[in-house]
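Deliverable D2.4 — example input (structure tokens):
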């Protein structure tokens, strides 16, 4: 009894461009994660400092505007 061989046309057809775009999408997702994680960590570690600096700049600008008018 012989084992039937697969013919050339059997199975799903996957083109090289489909494989390349899947790899590219994975690379883009990995790069996005690498770029996004450090700023998120910094914001979670230093929220009080960030808010202090933001409000300090806002109150400083308000003082200067009062002197002009």
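Example output (designed residues):
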């Amino acid at each position: 009894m012989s084992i039937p061989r697969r013919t050339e046309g059997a199975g799903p057809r996957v083109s090289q461009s489909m494989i390349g775009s899947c790899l590219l999408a994975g690379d883009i997702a990995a790069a996005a994660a690498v770029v996004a994680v450090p700023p998120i960590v910094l914001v979670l570690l230093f929220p009080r400092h960030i808010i202090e600096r933001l409000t300090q700049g806002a109150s400083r600008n308000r003082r200067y505007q009062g002197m002009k008018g």
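The radius of gyration is 29 Å.
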